[in-house]
Amino acid sequence: MARLRKAERRERILAELRLTPHVRISELADRFGVTSETVRRDVDALSVEGLVNRAYGGASASPMGTQPPFGERNRARIGERARIGRLAATLVQPGEVLMIDAGSTTTQLAHALSVNGSGLTVLTNSLPVATGLGQHGSADVILCPGDYVANEAAVYGSETETFLRRFNANRAFIGAGGITPDGVMDVNRAASAVKRTMLGQAEKVYVLADHSKFNQRLLSLVVALPAIDALIVDEAPAGELARALDEAGVAIHVAVD
Questions:
Q1: Mean pLDDT on 146-158
Q2: Where are the domains of the chain?
Q3: What is the pTM for the complete model shown?
Q4: Per mean pLDDT, which of 20-24, 52-56, 101-105 is the most reliable?
Q5: Strand partners, 232
Q6: Residue 129 main-chain phi, psi, to 5 deg
Q7: Between 73 and 87, where is the model more confident?
Q8: Quick check: 84 and 208 in contact, CB under 8 A?
């Protein structure tokens, strides 16, 4: 059997954990034809992203209601998220009004827009998005009020949602903790509420997510798939998820190297 690549091994580990609550490193190493140390590194990397929990001798499925703080997520899959952000930025026209929610991938979009954006107005609940856009002064940034959550480097709450409803936008860009055939998922109910508010105020809705978010079922359903216009990813979805996206009429934009 051909040896699996790193990304393939990690997808297989996640697939195993969707079927069983615990997997052993030694058994995975035998199955993949690699050393236990190699699988341990895979598990450690998935743990940093909040996709699995380290357990004695193996890994267990990550709870639906937790995720690592923004700082940890922002250090994971930087290359993939940067490509997604750059591709998303190409969809924006000069002078448009955008809503961008808090997240590690949407922060990469902000960095791309700070270089290539022109005459934009951006409403956001994210401090990193606001500061990223402000680096080159290419956008008029409106930072939402609300309750500051340090782990997310963002504001949330009823005040945030009420403020956003005062504005309209050409496009909304949101991140996702997970994407399943049922829709866009997140672990944070307050974040889900802000995302839904942004989507309701925008003419076009885009979800930014790397492939590790595919088929991740989490605590909160943000919106069903028909509510979004496009998904911007680093790899094309496959299987049941791909069929559900196609049936919902969601366009897929794949960011390549």
A1: 91
A2: 6-61, 71-254
A3: 0.73
A4: 101-105
A5: 208, 253
A6: -65, -45
A7: 87
A8: yes
* Tokens describing residue 86: 């750059």
CA pair distance 242, 167, nearest whole angstrom:
33
The CATH number of domain 6-61 is 1.10.10.10 = yes
- Residue-level length of the chain: 257
Q: Which residues pair with 90 in a beta bridge?
A: none
Structure tokens at 147: 């309750």
Q: Please count the helices (runs of H) and the strands (runs of E) in the chain.
A: 10, 15
Q: Which CATH number fits domain 71-254: 3.30.40.10, 3.40.50.880, 3.40.640.10, 3.40.50.1360?
A: 3.40.50.1360
Residue with tokens 């956001």: 124
Q: What is the mean pLDDT of the chain?
A: 86
Of 83, 136, 131, nearest in space to 109 by CA: 83
Question: What is the average pLDDT across 211-217?
Answer: 86
Closest CA to 215 of 254, 177, 255: 177
